[in-house]
Each structure stands twice: as C-alpha cells, then as structure tokens.
Write a structure and sequence with these properties.
Layout (H helix, E strand, L loop, with lengths): L1 E8 L8 H4 L2 E8 L6 E11 L1 H7 L9 E2 L3 E9 L11 E4 L9 H4 L7 H9 L9 E3 L7 E2 L9 E5 L3 E3 L6 H4 L5 H11 L8 E5 L3 H12 L3 E6 L2 H10 L3 E4 L4 H8 L4 E6 L4 H9 L1 E9 L14 H5 L3 E4 L7 H13 L9 E5 L4 H10 L4 E5 L1
Parallel strand pairs: 4-8, 11-12, 11-14, 12-13, 14-15, 15-16, 17-18
Antiparallel strand pairs: 1-2, 1-4, 2-7, 3-5, 3-9, 3-18, 5-6, 6-10
Helix pairs in contact: 6-7, 6-12
C-alpha cells in the first residue's frame, strides 16, 4: 500500500468561482495493492474535461465522495494476479468505460456500451466492484470516477480500462486520447460515414469538438465550426475549418446557406438540447446528426417527428466516440505521430494538483480548450 495525493470531491453543486469555494480537496489517500485483473498506474498526466465539471456543478450526479478525473495517461507500476499483456514500465492511456469483453455489447464489438462497465461506473467502483482508495485521515473509502479517478498520483484500474501505447508520444498529449480525441474523433469517424467532399458542421469547440474538426478534415470533409467564443473559432480556422460561425440566433440559417441547404453530417458536443436542436435543423435531407454531449437529465429534445421518415434523417448518440479503445487509441495516436491529427494544438494549460479548482473555473468560462494536470 502507498499513500498518494488525490483530488476529492465531497459535495456537488458548490458555487463558482471554484477558486473560492474549493470543491476539490487535495488530500492524502492510502491506495491498495492491485487485485486480480487490476493494474497499479502511476498517473503522469490527466486532462480536465466537462464531464468532470458536470459532476462538480451537480448537473451529472454521481455518488459521493469521489476522486475525480477520467482522461489520463500513465505508466504501469505493478500488475495484479491474472493480468496478461501488461508489464511494469508500459505506457498506457485509460479509457473511461472498462469493457468486460463478455457481455452482449462487448461481444458485438461495442465496448462503449459494456453493461458491467456501465454498472460499475454508476456505482463508483472498479469493474470488480471494489474501491481501492482509503482516506488517510478518516478511513473513509471514496468512489472511483468512471473506473479511472485520474486526479491522483497513483491509481488502481481494471486492466480492461488500460490501452498500451507507443512511448514516443508525451504523456501530457497521450492523456487527451482517453476522452477528448477518442470521443470527438471517434464520433466523426465511427458514428458517421464521412466521405471526401462531404460537409460537416461541428457545434461546440472544446477539446472534443476540435478533435472532431481535425478528424473530419483528415477524412476529406469541408468543416463548418460553430462556437460562442471567438478564440476557439480562430483555432478551428488554423486547423483547417472552411468556415467558422459565432453561435448567434441565426446560426442555423448561416450553416444552411454555406452548405447549399444543410450539411451532410452535424456533430453536437456541447451537452445542450437547444444546441442539438440547432444541429439537427442544420442537417440536410438524408443527413446524419450525432450528439456526444451529456445534457442535464432534465432537458428534453423537440424535433419534427415526420422529418425522420419524410427526409430520411438519422439522429444518433455516440458514447466514447462509438470507439473500440484498444483499436482506436493506437490508431489515433499513429495519426498524430504522422502529422494528421495535430492534437498538440488542443493543449492550452499545464497545471499541478493544487491548481485544479482554478482550472475548472477556466474550463467553465470557456477560456481553456484542454488543460492537463501534470505529475
């Protein structure tokens, strides 16, 4: 057992600015040895994501208390009983759905929908049902966030959460492939059928949205990028977006004018029913609208039902980028190393663990694209 520093959330919904309310408490945790099927990981870098922020602000309720963080890369330190394919020193990226490999979705090649993985994530445990942190001062056992809990110096994960990677990529960039790139690029390439010359609109230009922009461009599409923050539009232009639009009241009309009546594919990454409605309205007859955002459960979507049939529209969700992490994380890293996915452009801030609360203020304001906690 080791004692490590970790960022613990004990109460959701504290008011911003988080630099003052301090929802994340940096505390000492005793971490267990890895159990059967588990790995001890030394976290080297962890990204700050809106999925973490949505737990902090209470819009995505989770069991409390919880060690947050789910987008990470690190090094294998120890291997639990029965684990094959990993050894100490391996570099890994962590996927936030631990895919069991045996349930119906896993057998059908859809590990993002793993049923035991989803149940463990909802319960705040590892895939085994265990919790491996103990708070040093109280003896309390916090929950795990999406099987990862990356805001800690060392973590225990299921071996099913880890993907071995090329050590040529720096940890601070590798971390982004666990969520931002896997979700955004994955949705663009796995949940749609983009062909060269297609038009694609991406609504929301955080790390996930910009990863989708990169992947759509790499697939040969002409991209229209939409956001409310001019700096993010400028970055999308630098990445190769054909058009960039401020998210004004007439943005749907603007997208439709630029795409001769509507885009072939629209991706919504904000987590807003209103934005998803705009993305759907901006998609042409026969087109596909994909949402990867996670809105508050109280939000409902209203669309013209007949359009699904009369216009042969497709509206679909994509979780984890509809990816197979063991296939897609190395694939996307390979494209980065080949210069095809400039993921380094997403990284705007590097933090230490004591700066996490300030980092989430920056994320909430839209100032940052992707911030990385570096150990």
């Amino acid at each position: 057992m080791n004692t490590v520093r970790a960022a613990l959330l004990t109460q959701m919904g504290l008011p911003s600015p988080y630099a003052l309310s301090r929802p994340l408490q940096i505390t000492d945790m005793v971490i267990d040895d890895p159990g059967p099927g588990e790995l001890l990981i030394g976290v080297r870098a962890a990204g700050l994501c809106h999925s973490d922020l949505s737990v902090i602000d209470g819009s995505r309720p989770r069991v409390m208390p919880m060690v947050l963080g789910h987008e990470a890369a690190g090094e294998v330190l120890r291997v639990g009983e029965g684990v094959t394919g990993f050894e100490p020193g391996d570099h890994v990226v962590l996927a936030f759905v631990p895919a069991c490999g045996d349930c119906t979705p896993c057998r059908r090649g859809r590990p993002a929908l793993c049923e035991p993985g989803a149940a463990a994530n909802a319960a705040g445990t590892l895939l085994s049902g265990a919790r491996r942190f103990t708070r040093a001062t109280t003896g309390e056992q916090p929950h795990h966030h999406l099987g990862v809990s990356a805001f800690a110096e060392q973590i225990i994960v299921s071996a099913h959460s880890a993907v071995k990677i090329d050590p040529a990529i720096p940890f601070e960039l590798a971390a982004l492939f666990g969520c931002a790139v896997l979700t955004g690029a994955g949705a663009a390439l796995n949940a749609t059928a983009i062909e060269p010359g297609d038009t694609v609109a991406v609504f929301g230009l955080g790390g996930v949205g910009l990863a989708a922009v990169m992947a759509a461009i790499d697939a040969g599409a002409s991209v229209i990028a939409v956001d409310r923050i001019p700096g993010k539009l400028e970055l999308a232009r630098e990445l190769g977006a054909a058009h960039t639009l401020l998210a004004t009241d007439d943005v749907v009309d603007q997208v439709r004018r630029l795409s001769d009546g509507g885009v072939d594919h629209a991706l919504e990454t904000v987590g807003s029913a209103r934005v998803l409605q705009n993305a759907y309205a901006a998609t042409r007859r026969g087109g596909t609208t994909v949402t990867v955002g996670l809105p508050d459960p109280s939000q409902n979507l209203t669309i013209q039902a007949v359009s699904l049939v009369a216009e042969e529209r497709t509206l679909k969700g994509s979780y984890l980028g509809s990816s197979v992490p063991t296939r897609d994380i190395p694939l996307f890293i390979g494209r980065y190393l080949a210069g095809r996915l400039p993921v380094d452009r997403l990284l705007t801030h590097r933090l230490d663990i004591d700066q996490l609360n300030e980092g989430f203020d920056r994320l909430a304001s839209g100032e940052a694209v992707r911030q990385v906690l570096v150990f």
